[in-house]
Amino acid sequence: MSELTRERVLEALRPVQDPELHRSLVDLGMIKEVTIEGASVRVQVELTTPACPLRERIREDVERAVRALPGVQTVEVGFSSRVRAAGTGLPDRQPIPGVKNTIAVASGKGGVGKSTVAVNLAVALAQEGATVGLLDADVYGPSIPLMLGAEEQPGLVDNKIIPGRAYGIAVMSVGYILDPEKALIWRGPLVSQLIRQFLSDVQWGDLDYLVIDLPPGTGDVQLTLVQTIPLSGAIIVTTPQDVALADAIKGLQMFREVKTPVLGIVENMSYFVCPHCGHVAEIFGSGGGERVANKYGVPLLGQIPIDPAVREGGDRGVPVVVGQPGSSTAQAFREAARQAAARLSVEAVKKPRKPVMMLQPKR
Ligand SMILES: Nc1ncnc2c1ncn2[C@@H]1O[C@H](COP(=O)(O)OP(=O)(O)OP(=O)(O)O)[C@@H](O)[C@H]1O
Fold it and tell me: What does this protein do (predicted)?
């Protein structure tokens, strides 16, 4: 019987593909270590995100491939992760130092739960083990300070803004600095200047993901953002009703126009489960998010139910993924976060994007 060696294990692993990236784990450099002790093999896999939704599938595939080798009795698979940077290849835009991925959370219409989704996705990614920041770019109605509170308030050191901290994430919002009602009267150039300052003067530190909560629509903030940094991807939040979907499509098309990958759609307020009888009511209609996702060829990252705990948690500064982590709503947010992280991993191994023309604000 031929000897069990590291090379033979790697050879056996070569046909095993990452299910999202459709490339060999070996070729992607994801097999970090192979340790052989007698008939026991231990394989250390480095995932492209700690929030990988396919961890168990990868474990099974690796185990099966190694177990098929003659002389192997036990296989142990361990995991670590290293998030790769997406959004390179746009030389006209400077990445934020230390920030690997920037994710814009957008909606066409106000009130669909975009900020709620941004907060819960950001905290869910941190709970999975990623380093995460959240920038509230909704300067017209900053709601992040209310939804998250802050264990540490933002501060100023050597003319650099140090973000606040809440639930393990770095967080910055104009709402920590100004009376939110004053922010509502801001106009175009000032808003663009503030956004640029948030992108350049906030000391985010090393982040796997910076989640950016945008104002609704396609205005100055969106344009400033896409023209200042190489945005890694956008998530569109919508409710299932037609009027919200029509606006969501506009948002989706704007990101496509500026060659920002749309990671997918999160359908919020998808259904309500009666706490008394368990009846599922589709208050805002059904299937809208999926129809748009299919039509435009983007994934439906998740469907979040209407849950009073979401609103209560938001009003108390405790996101539902923290306040009720075992609930099906928290589970739905975590799954959406994992799907978004997986899409970003796919973007990170793709070829660099081509630079795009600068757009002018539509007035
Ligand atoms: N799934 C949900 N279940 C129950 N309440 C929700 C849900 N999602 C959001 N809400 C509530 O709906 C209200 C609006 O949500 P949010 O502020 O996140 O929307 P938005 O799209 O960011 O709004 P805007 O962009 O206009 O500021 C909030 O009170 C929030 O707590």
Answer: Binds and transfers iron-sulfur (Fe-S) clusters to target apoproteins. Can hydrolyze ATP.
Per-residue pLDDT of the chain (363 residues; tens, 9 = 90+): 568 899 999 999 999 999 988 999 999 999 999 999 999 999 999 999 999 999 999 999 999 999 999 999 999 999 999 998 876 556 667 788 899 999 999 998 888 999 999 999 999 999 999 999 999 998 888 889 999 987 888 888 888 899 999 999 999 998 887 765 665 566 677 888 888 888 889 999 999 999 999 988 878 888 888 888 889 999 999 998 877 788 888 889 989 888 889 999 999 998 888 888 888 878 777 788 888 888 889 999 999 999 999 999 999 999 999 999 999 999 999 999 999 999 999 988 875 555 444 444 444
Element (H, E) at 268: strand 262-268
216 Cβ inside 6 Å of ligand 1: yes
What DSSP designation does 200 have?
Answer: H
Contact 235, 125 (CB under 8 A): no
113 is in an annotated binding site: yes
Instruction: Find out whether 124 and 321 touch, Cβ atoms under 8 Å.
Output: yes
Residues 65 and 103 in one domain: no
Co-location of 186 and 59 in the same domain? no
- What is the CA 119 to chain-centroid distance, rounded? 10
The domain boundary residue, chosen from 22, 51, 81: 81
Domain boundaries, position 158 = 99-350
Q: Note whether 114 and 263 are same-domain residues.
A: yes
Together in a domain, 236 and 179 = yes
Tokens of 214: 């945008």
ipTM of the complex: 0.98
Q: Would you say 111 is a known binding-site residue? A: yes
